[in-house]
Design a protein that fits this description.
The complex is a heterodimer.
Chain A lengths: L12 H16 L5 E2 L13 H10 L5 E6 L6 H13 L3 E2 L8 E5 L12 E5 L13 H9 L4 H14 L10 E3 L3 E3 L9 H4 L5 E6 L4 E5 L5 E3 L26 E5 L6 E5 L2 H9 L17
Parallel strand pairs in A: 2-3, 2-4, 4-5, 5-8
Antiparallel strand pairs in A: 1-9, 6-7, 6-10, 8-9, 11-12
Chain B lengths: L7 H17 L9 H7 L1 H11 L4 H10 L4 H12 L17 E6 L49 H7 L27 H10 L2 H12 L8 E16 L4 E20 L7 E10 L3 H14 L15 H7 L2 H9 L6 H21 L3 H12 L1
The chains are: A alpha/beta, B alpha+beta.
């Protein structure tokens, strides 16, 4: 039994090469899910193994890494993944969106607009947007090959018929470059517009399902909708009670057991940066009304 | 008053320190050694090696110790270590006919060349708690006989001599490896068997059981189960011949199943195959049942039961994948939940606005959806 010695960023170079080939193919066919030989990672499946493998494969010693979960740098899983790369790659880490060259994320796109020098790596649980309509991979691959997306539109139509709205609020399906329907990972649909025409490269890694896909920079990404039911991003009708932001996605925090609650930015870096710039809670900030039950 | 959630990093470190503390437990109780786990929890080590896909008793024992006896966690630890190891190639096929037999039984023939060898087994014990084991005890060494030099041909080989069972032709070409190539469907039998060998014992047990209860029935007989030591050889390009790497313990199960035949082929028994590291009979038998069930397509049988559904079985057999995804629900889902909450409040507000006539308007809404 010998003590293991790990390569830079954990994965061996052969594995990185294999993953980079999958990434290149994914960039060449925007929105197409490229199968890759996902490795067993020292963190559980479903906890970001796909994103970690993509990050490990593109990371260089000069990179500055930011890891967020739910928009925050300080949630347990983000901390754990950031520590993993600090330990195995020794790269510099940051919580600043502006400063980072590689950002690994779970469930959010940063509020601060990304630049051409950045790569956003998404952790993806179920890469197949058609999965919950058709459980079989053999079928869904065929549907993608034939651009047979009628089923998805029927599903969205049925939502409207039943609820009066499209009832998908996160992991809202998009069409990439007018060809592939793609799952943007479980980001709230508030973030969907940020995917389109984004200067940064966006990579998506699904470890358990062994798929990588990509949105190259400046690619058109359209959220699926109908002419009479256009796509509408959702955010709570409130301002952040820490920084007063009226444009950021908000987390609702329950403050007591009598229905008290407050809204704060989900993107902690965005919120902290604004507060450092002198923004504060609006003096007249109305306390959020108790939910109508 | 709410304070922005900070301090995750320190909380994690403290949680890990607490884990290390409870792992050790009462300091007055002697600490487990790896040799104790390897020797006295040997079947647990076997299972962890098998589903962890790494034959190393010491590392498996370490994983069990580190995982506090949580087998799936131990399997996960071993897998995560295995994935970092370089791969030189595939061994030559092991010759189980040359196995140094510890146990060999057949349920299809009362006696056969080589005989029935019971070996160490729970099979005929009464499952009564043995309170004598609660204390340290002196166990006299068991009587043994020298191993036979004879080659034990398998029951299925004997049946194959007379054409009563389908021939298993050796296949040339590279063996698939689903840890190096993503699985795609339909999958070849090599990949199916690899998947099952790594698959969760409980999952395969339930699937195998379901075939016995009529969900994809295939009339199995345990043609033979053997457990013992085999030599592993590796063809070294540099020297031009196969060199022995060492020996490993294996359990092999050859299931004999009901017939297949056609206009051009006489009816014959079909096979299901199971192979596992160490002494893992339950696993090997369940694997053989599921292997046979998954051959439904190849044998022209109707596919209807879960155990026959290749995509269902192969996509859900891996317990490291399964536990990761089930347990990831513990991770925060704040932002998605907020999005759902927003929609639900909107729907409820609209519902309230519709007021009393909602009862009657409910029905046409339902219909429109269907």
């Amino acid at each position: 039994m010998s003590a293991p010695v790990y390569n830079f960023a954990y994965l061996d170079e052969q594995t990185k090469r294999m993953i980079r080939r999958a990434i290149l193919k994914a960039i060449a066919i925007p929105g197409y899910q490229v199968p890759f030989a996902s490795r067993e990672m020292p963190m559980p499946y479903g906890w970001g193994t796909g994103g970690v493998q993509v990050t490990a494969s593109i990371l260089g010693p000069e990179d500055v890494l930011k890891v967020i979960d739910q928009g925050s740098d300080d949630t347990t899983n983000a901390v754990s993944i950031r520590k993993f790369f600090t330990k195995t790659a020794g790269v510099r880490t940051t919580t600043s969106t502006l400063e980072a060259t590689v950002i690994q994320t779970r469930h959010r796109v940063p509020e601060t607009p990304l630049t051409e020098n950045q790569v956003l790596v998404y952790q993806v649980p179920i890469p197949e947007p058609l999965r919950f309509l058709e459980p079989r991979e053999t079928e869904t691959r065929r549907m993608h090959a034939l651009s047979e997306y009628g089923l998805m539109h029927v599903k969205l139509y049925e939502d409207i018929a039943r609820h009066g709205h499209i009832a998908t609020t996160y992991a809202y399906p998009v069409k990439v470059d007018e060809r592939y329907v793609m799952d943007p990972s479980p980001i709230p649909k508030f973030d969907n517009p940020k995917l389109s025409d984004c200067p940064a490269l966006q990579l998506f890694g699904a470890g358990r399902e062994k798929r990588i896909y990509a949105i190259p920079p400046y690619t058109r990404v359209v959220s699926l909708d109908f002419e009479d039911h256009p796509f509408q991003p959702y955010r709570h009708d409130a301002q952040c009670e820490l920084c007063g932001a009226a444009d950021s996605y908000l987390d609702e925090v329950i403050t007591d057991d009598r229905g008290g609650r407050m809204f704060v930015c989900s993107d902690t870096d965005y919120c902290e940066t604004r507060r450092a710039m002198g923004y504060a809670a609006p003096a007249s900030a109305p306390k959020a009304e108790p939910a109508r039950d | 008053m709410y304070v922005a959630v900070k301090g995750g990093e320190r909380a994690i470190e403290n949680a890990h320190a607490l884990l290390a503390d409870v792992r050790r437990g009462d300091r007055a109780v002697p600490e487990l050694s790896l040799a104790q786990i390897d020797n006295q929890l040997a079947l647990g080590v076997d299972r962890v090696m098998c589903e962890g896909s790494l034959y190393d008793r010491e590392l498996a024992a370490l994983a069990i110790k580190q995982a506090r006896g949580d087998m799936i966690e131990a399997i996960f630890l071993l897998r995560a270590y295995r994935t970092t190891l370089p791969r030189f190639g595939a061994s030559e096929p092991v010759e189980t006919a040359d196995m140094d037999i510890r146990r060999r039984i057949s349920a299809t023939f009362k006696d056969l060349p080589g005989g029935q060898v019971l070996g160490p087994t729970f099979d005929y014990t009464h499952r009564l708690l043995d309170h004598a084991l609660a204390q340290a005890s002196e166990v006299p060494p068991a009587a043994t006989a020298p191993a036979s030099d004879a080659t034990f041909r398998s029951v299925t080989d004997l049946l194959a001599d007379s054409g009563l069972i389908e021939a298993e032709d050796a296949q040339d070409g590279e063996v698939g490896d689903l840890t190096r190539q993503p699985l795609s469907f339909p999958a070849g039998r090599d990949l199916r068997l690899q998947n099952l060998a790594r698959g969760d014992e409980g999952f395969l047990l339930a699937l195998g059981y379901s075939t016995q209860r009529g969900f994809g029935r295939n009339h199995p007989f345990a043609g033979e189960i053997r457990y013992g030591e085999v030599e592993v050889e590796f063809f070294a390009e540099e020297v031009g011949f196969a060199v022995p790497l060492g020996t490993i313990f294996l359990t092999e199960c050859q299931m004999v199943n009901q017939f297949a035949g056609s206009g051009t082929q006489a009816p014959r028994f079909t096979r299901g195959y199971g192979l596992a590291f160490g002494q893992s009979e339950r696993k090997a038998m369940a694997m053989a049942l599921v292997d046979r069930a998954l051959r439904a397509r190849e044998l022209g049988e109707e596919i209807g039961a879960p155990a026959q559904d290749e995509e269902f079985v192969l996509s859900h057999s891996d317990n490291v994948q399964a536990t990761g995804f089930v347990e990831h629900l513990k991770l925060p889902h704040y932002v998605d939940f907020q999005a759902e909450l927003g929609l639900l409040r909107q729907l409820r507000a609209e519902f309230a606005e519709r007021g009393d006539d909602t009862e009657s308007s409910d029905t046409p809404l339902q219909d429109a959806a269907e």
